Amino acid sequence: MLEEKSGAVGTITRFVAAMRTAGVPVSVAESIDAVESLRYTQITDREAFKAALAATLVKSRGHYRTFETLFDIFFAPRFGRALSSAPEDKNRDGRGEEHSNWRSDGQTRLRQAAGGGSDGLSREELQALLLAAILDADYAEMQALAYRAVEAFAGMEPGRPVGGTYYLYRTLQQIDIESLFERAVKAILSKARHDARYRPDSEVRPLSSLEERLLREEIQARIEKLRELIQGEIRRWLVEDRGPEALAKSIHKPLPEEIEFMHATSDEIREMRRAIHPLSRKLAAKLARSRRKRQGERIDMRHTIRRSMSTGGVPFYPQFRKPHPTKPELFLLCDISGSVANFARFTLQLVYALASQFSRVRSWVFVDGIDEVTEHFERAGDLSEALRKVNAEANVVWIDGHSDYGHVLEVFWKAHEKDVTPKTTIIVLGDARNNYHASRAEILAEMGSKARRVFWLNPEPTSYWNTGDSVIAEYASYCDGVFECRNLKQLERFVTSLE
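-> structure tokens emitted (499 positions)
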């Protein structure tokens, strides 16, 4: 047992290093807590051990997926497990034979094939057994069958530099997982229509749409579980072939805060939206704390000197000015053309979630025309609803709907010059790709002379700046700062500087 725990300490150390490489923040104290948890957890109890590491190392829900993937890599069970230890007459949920009548004689065939490799089991037999396990929700059997499916169909080649996704695709294609889903749905719906639970007054009645949907969702969840089990088996093969560190690097996926706005898929956008809310709470607390700290450090020299008269001119009792909160006023000018629109939407969403930290937030959206959309955010109870209204109602096209920063700046400044004060911070969001129109950078210079600060956030990598029709260099000379802002992490870093 001591040898096992000492080996686990070394693996935990490498596991923590891989988590940090993947972008998950793990402190030294947290890694020590993870090792300390070995005193209270049996390594052989994999689920308890996983829960203990998650409790000590993971602080954000968005980081749990990365933790789970790396855990499966570094703490993968050994190969050669028994195919199933569940009794013949019961499934994993402990239900009796009356609920396990999907099983065919093929289970005996599977156990006979276990000694002689997967060659003793045909593709059709494996599909039949998978269908029976799915219908019975027998996850122990599904685990065994996943091992056989990978062994038979993945075509794993030692040393071949192919990612796990390729092997997963091959395996799922061979077992025809889509067909398994349809067959399972058909079978379970047919059984449900004649099940006693659905036959009041001894009469067969059709399932309601809700009942049918719930049964479909249950089968879909079991199919997803099978997919996860197959993916887990592939990872175990790859760990044995390449080692955990090499595999962790090859399958690393960016965290939600590291996904680029301009190249995010629909699934990644949903992940980023879920990350916005905890991020906004954290940033709000950080901004408020920073503001209080800065205000508390100001000494009132006049009152300090006056108080020191009673102590012979020695300032034993420093006097501090009472804090007068000074929150900046924000003006946001957002390019919503093309792929830049994702960047503008997330920035608007984050800034309005932090609205209490600013005296006021006003927003304009533009392409080659510009329109103020502040009221949409102030009236809407939900930010998503406000963004939908902005997309549907904002008048942002002047001539042809191609970005024209020069014209936009000119129209904005003519209409709102009087609204800009020394308390105003102006932020322009866009890639500065001006379609070869006049930049009118001198207008930005006028803004900078009247406003508190002017910033430009660009969602493109710096290597793309000033290439093609990008005129960011012309604007940069009149800004207090031009920042690359391609993901939530960079956006967070910028927002914390707005004090």
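The beta strands are 329-335, 360-366, 370-372, 424-429, 453-458, 481-484.
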